[in-house]
Amino acid sequence: METVKIFVRPDNTVTIVCPSCSLVKNASVGAYKDKCHNIKVRCPCGTQFMVHLDFRRYFRKPTDLPGFYKIVKPPGMGCGDINIKDISLGGIGFTVSGKNRIEVGQTLSLDFTLDDKKKTRLKKEVAVQSIDGDFIGSRFSDNELFEKELGFYLRF
């Protein structure tokens, strides 16, 4: 069964589009916020499909950007190369190859260049939120510093 990922708006509504007939329906999904984010939908055309509701506060843009990390809290714990897999106004998801000493709760400094026309270089401080194998989920500590450049990048 096909799964369609839908970004939930701040008012907890979504627009669902049938992958077969393109029928559009707006729906309120606030009741699912603290429950299951995967729901089965049946269109009047007979098509059944799964909808994954993404309640994230910010849209995540898929990327493939090389960069560098340094653990700053606690200091002296290590540094290395990263590959940024997704980025939003709230945080960054990235992979680290090889052994590292990154742990949930640490503060890292990330240095990377966006693939925009200006090749904007950003240095962001992040707090590690989750670790899944070599994938690190993090949130920005200093969200306001590059909001303009990052916001523009995420729009295009």
Search tags:
elongated, single chain, 156 residues, Thrombin, subunit H, mainly beta, six-stranded antiparallel β-barrel
Topology:
Elements: E1 3-7, E2 13-17, E3 24-28, E4 38-42, E5 48-54, E6 61-73, E7 79-87, E8 91-96, E9 107-113, E10 121-132, E11 135-140, H1 147-155
Parallel strand pairs: 1-5
Antiparallel strand pairs: 2-3, 4-5, 6-7, 6-9, 7-8, 8-11, 9-10, 10-11
Q: How would you describe the overall organization of this protein?
A:
The chain has 156 residues and is mainly β. It folds into two domains: 3-54, no CATH class; 61-155, predicted glycosyltransferase like domains (Thrombin, subunit H, Beta Barrel), CATH 2.40.10.220. It is built from one helix and eleven strands, in the order βββββββββββα. It has one helix spanning 147-155, and strands spanning 3-7, 13-17, 24-28, 38-42, 48-54, 61-73, 79-87, 91-96, 107-113, 121-132, 135-140. A six-stranded antiparallel beta barrel has the order 6-7-8-11-10-9. A hairpin with a 5-residue loop joins strand 6 (61-73) and strand 7 (79-87). The radius of gyration is 19 Å and the shape is elongated. The two termini are 31 Å apart. The model has no long low-confidence stretch (mean pLDDT 88).
Question: Outline of this structure?
Answer:
The chain is mainly β. It is elongated, with a radius of gyration of 19 Å.
Write down the CATH topology of the largest domain.
Answer: Thrombin, subunit H
Task: Write down the CATH class of the largest domain.
Answer: Mainly Beta
Question: Major sheet: size, sense and barrel closure?
Answer: 6 strands, antiparallel, barrel
How do the SSEs run, as a string of H and E? EEEEEEEEEEEH
CATH architecture type of the largest domain: Beta Barrel
Count the E strands. Answer: 11
Helix content class: under 10%
- Globular, elongated, flat, extended or rod-shaped: what is the shape? elongated
Question: How many separate domains make up the residues?
Answer: 2
Which structural category do the helix and sheet elements fall into? mainly beta
Low-confidence parts:
none
CATH H-level name of the largest domain... which superfamily?
Answer: predicted glycosyltransferase like domains
Number of helix segments?
A: 1
| Rg computed from alpha carbons, rounded to a whole number of angstroms | 19 Å
The side-by-side strand order for the widest beta sheet comes to 6-7-8-11-10-9
Distance between the termini: 31 Å
Percent strand equals: over 45%
Average pLDDT over all residues: 88
